[in-house]
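Please produce the structure of this protein holding uridine-diphosphate-N-acetylglucosamine.
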Amino acid sequence: MTQLLIKGGGRLKGEVTVQGAKNSVLPILAATLLTKDEVELRACPRLRDVDASIRILRGLGCGARWEGDSLIVSTSGLNAWGISDILMREMRSSAIFLGAILARCGEAELSYPGGCELGPRPIDLHLSGLRDLGAEIRESGGVLHCKAPRMEGREVVLGIPSVGATENLMLAACGASGVTSISNAAREPEIVDLQNFLQACGARVSGAGTSTITIEGKAPLHGCAYTVMPDRIVAATYLCACAAAGGEVFLRGARETHLSTVTAVLREAGCTVSPDGAGIACACRERLNAVRPVRTAPYPGFPTDAQAVLMAALLRSRGATVFEENIFENRYRHVDELTRMGAGIRVSGRTAVVTGVEALHGAPVYCTDLRGGAALCVAALAAEGTTQVRETGHIDRGYEDIARDLGALGADIAREA
Ligand code: UD1
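Below is the modeled complex.
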């Protein structure tokens, strides 16, 4: 079992290039099924979830190979439309393959992705939207049998702006005849990145980044070379690391337009955040101040994925900060671990109140989920002594190499087998 050993107390100083975005590349990998031509994905992050997607593609008969930081995908050999239960369970977002397989094959069979560490993660909106387009979907024994020999475009209204449902429907709609419009669509930057990829392949998709996305289906799609956008949550993590430890860092490639709610909170807490065309510089010289309530919300609101790392950054702030988690039911599992390091946090339902303490101390702690694990690393940088962060496999789902990156930013961090 690998663990990270982090010796806290030192200030950060350094620069890192932000990796490609996990939440962009996963739907884009599903979208590669829409063309039989080769696709080159540049700045593709090497992550456990990307490996899981590659295994799904290979299980369908497709090819995928690395060339440096590019992943070359060829789906011309596609010879199956089912995804095994084991592969479905490896990665919760594998449901996004459903829309793409239906568009390409007219038929799909995959198991239902169950609940996860963040609480229940239903896909009812994905399924009802696909049914709206004409797919017949039967569920038996946790397996979804989907048939869509002829999907027809129409207006689909999402009850909530689900990221995954929006992406699934964009992909399915590429294979539907006529025009599909998705109303109350999610507006996350990763949806725009998916649209940009689809457009680069020749798809007629517009409106991503707004609440209405329009897809004219059945456009002939071709291969392309596409550069994945930088990961805004990884950037948020490293900004919070700087805020927690103090110091000065530069995050090459980070885009402030994607991070404005996070940078606004960090400025309120006392950090100096300076974006330029090449990235974002952050300097934190003094003890942070508590901030106004932080409420997670769909984009452009404060991202739920940055809630844990911001909480970690504020553990030694002056005063108390209220967090309200509005997206997932079970997203405070990192709190118990942070408490072991001396944090003052009270949770009641969807609210957590962080009362800043004078000092944190190193402790053995366990990652409970991807972003919760990253939060433990952020807190460890601000703690006196050494923290052992265990169960780091969660972190590897979304960070290429958090030890490499935090090390480049001046942290005393080592990975131990
Ligand atoms: C995506 C991100 C994840 C992020 C989340 C919210 C990826 C791979 N993952 O997850 O990192 O935390 O967006 O920004 O991009 N819901 C339903 N029914 C559905 C679908 C969703 O009730 O059919 C609910 C969910 O339970 C949740 C909310 O909608 O409460 C938002 O979920 P959604 O936007 O779909 O998140 P994901 O796409 O799973």
